[in-house]
Amino acid sequence: MYILIISPKIRLERKEGWHMKAILTISGEDKIGIIAQISKILAEEEIDILNISQNLMDNNFPTTIMIKITDGKDLKKIDKRFDNLGNQWAPKSTMIVN
């Protein structure tokens, strides 16, 4: 089972405009290409990766990614893309946007 969570929403104002920093958490069975698929979605949505922390614990893959989402992004669309990705990895998956 994979759980993808984006939390919390912190809105910051910078010279380039408003943006939100969020934490994307991925947990589940280790599979080849997990980070590549997540990075591809984030790049296509023009979301910056600020930091990645990943571990391999036995066959489990807990990963935390700090991301920067610019104002005006469709979070429901992004949520659906990650939900679809989670369904490809495992029949039961969840993404929670706080």
Automatic annotation (TrEMBL):
Residues 23-96 form the ACT domain. InterPro entries: ACT-like_dom_sf, ACT_dom. It comes from the Bacteria. This is ACT domain-containing protein. It comes from Lactobacillus helveticus (strain DPC 4571).
